Amino acid sequence: MATISHAQPRMLSWSDRLILWYDHLKTPLFYLILILWAIICIAPLYFTLVFSLKPVANAYDPPLFWPIPFTLENFRDVIGALPLFPRWLLNSLIVSLTVTILRIFFCAMGGYAFARMEFPLKGFLFNAMLVSMMIPGQVTLIPAFLVVGPGIIRGGLKLGDITLPTGFGLIDNLGGVILPGIVTAFGVFMMTQFYKSLPRELEEAAMIDGLGRWGIFFRIVLPLSQTQLLTLALLTFQGEWNAFMWPLIILRTPENFTLPLGLNWFRGEYYTLISKVLAGSLFNTLPILILFFIFQRYFVQSIAGSGLKEG
Amino acid sequence: MTTPSTTSVILTARQKARRRREALTAYTFLLPYLFIFLIFTVFSIGYAFYLSFTRYNLLSPPQWWGLEGYRRVLCIESWFPRPENAPKPVCDDLFIRKALPNTFKYTAIVVPTQTLISLVLAFAMDQKIRFRRLFRTIFYLPSVTSSVVISLIFVWLFSPLGVINQIFHLKINWLNDPRYAFYTIMMVNIFTTSGTLMLIFLAGLQDIPITLYEAAAIDGANKFQIFRYITIPMLRPVIFFVVTVGIIGCFQVFDQIYVMTAGGPLDSTTTIAYLIYKWAFRDTTVKMGQASALAFILALIIFVVTMLQRRVIEGSGSVNQ
User: Fold this and answer.
1) Which pTM was predicted?
2) Where is the ABC transmembrane type-1 domain (chain A) (predicted)?
3) Contacting residues of B for A296, CB less than 8 Å apart
C-alpha cells in the first residue's frame, strides 16, 4: 500500500499533472470567465440607465453606480417636451412594421414558388439569388440611392414628348427607406428551404379538392409556416429598427428621421444634453429587448441554425 | 424543367396549357421579389459598374472616364518615390494611404479576437454550469441593441471625463487621439459581435456526437487530446463560418465609425466602407464614379480574402486527416 502510494506521484507525467490541475480549476475558471463577460455586457446599459436618471448637469459626475441626484426629467422630456422624439419613435415603428409585414409575405410567396412550382428559368433565378447574397451592399448603394431618389437621369427620360421618371422621387420620405427592404434574397431563400422540408400531402389533398394555388397558399401553406415566418419577422424587425446607413442616405429633415438617426442627430445638435440621448437610447433598446425576452427561442434558433446550415 | 424530354414530346395540348398556367402563377408569386431583384440587384450592379468608369457629381450627367476613376482610387503614382520637381499626381491617396491599411488592420485584430473570445465563452457555456439561460441572455444583449445606440453610449463612456476614465483613473482622450481612436472602435465591435458568434459556436459544440468523446476516452485520450483531435476538427466548419461572417462584417463596418469618429481624427479610423460613403455622399463635391470604383475594389478584396481564408482552414484540415 505504502509503496504504491509513494510510487504513484512519480509516475505522473507533466501533462497528467496539468490535467489534474485543470480538473480542479476548470469550474471556478469558467465561472470567472462567464461572470466577467456578463459584467462587460451589462455595464454599458447599466451606466446608461443610471445616468439617464441623473440631471443633465451631472452627466459626467460621480457617483457612477447610483443615480444621485435622482430625476425622471430626461424621460419626461423624451416622451413629452421634445416633440421630435415621439415623432422619431413613430417613424421607426412605421418603417419597421411595414417592412416586416411586407417582407414576410413577399418572401413566403417567393419561397413557395421556388419550392413547389415549375417554371422556365427557375434554376437560373435561384442560383442568381444565391450569388446576389454574396455581393456587398456597398456595390449597389449608389444606384439604389439614385433609383429611390433623384433618378438615373436628371429630369427624366425623354421619349419624344413623353418624359418618363427614372427614379421614385422618395428622398426624405419614409417610403424610400421601406422600398428596397420589402423583400430580400435571404428571406426568399430561407422560406424556400423551409417549404422544401414541408410534406406535400396536405397541399395535394387540397388540390384534389379543387383549391387553386392562391387558395392553397393562403389557407394551408401560410398557417403551416407560422413559426418560420415569426423567425423571419423578428430578424427583420430587429434589423429595420436598428438600421442606420440606408435611412441616413435617404432621410434629410429631422422630422422624418428614424430613432437611431434622430438620436445621432440630437447628440450632434445639443452636445450638452447627453443625458437625454441616453434616455432616448433606452427607448430605442427597450422594444427589441422585450421582443427578445418573449421570443428568445426563435432568436437563438435562427442564429445557431445559420451557422450549422451554411457551415 | 425536371420532366424527362421523352414525356414532353407526347404532351397533350391540355398538359401544355396547364404548364403555362403554372408558370404564370409562379411568376405572379415571384413578382414582388423579381421587381426588387431586377431594380436593386441586376440593374444596380450593372449601373454601378458603368458609373465606376465615369466621373459623376450628381450636378451634370455621368461623363465617360475610362479607368481614370480606378487610377485615382489606387493612386499608383504615390506608391513610388517621385523626382523632386515632378508635378504632384492628380489622385486621392486616402484609399492607399489610410482606408486600405486601416481596414486590414481592423480585420486582422477584430476577427481573431472576437473568434477566440466567443469560442472560449461557448466552451465555458458547454460545461455543466448553472444559470446557463441567464448567461446566454446577457451575452446576447449587445447584439440586439442597435449599433448606433451602442456607439452613442460608448462615445459618452469613453469621453475624456467619462465613466471609463473615472473608473480606471485614466486621462486618455480615447476617441480624439489618433493613437487610441481606432482601437476603441475595435473594442466596441468585439463587444457587440462576440455574443452572436458565441451562440453559433455553442450550437456547433452541442452538435458534436457524444459517442465520439466516449470512444476517444475509451481509447485512452486525455482531455487535451480530445480537445485537439475531436473538438477542434469537428468544429472546423463552424469556425470557417464564424471567420467568414467576421471578415465580411469587418470589411463593411460603417455605423460605429460614422457615429463615433466620422473617420477622424486625422483619418485614423477611415475604412474602405466609410470612404465609399464619404466620397459618394458626404464630400462637398460628391464623387459617385470614384466611389463606385472603390465599391468594386472592396467586393474584389472581400472575395479574394474569403477564398484565401477558405484555403487556409480547409488546408489545415486535410493535414490532420
Assistant:
1) 0.87
2) 89-295
3) 137
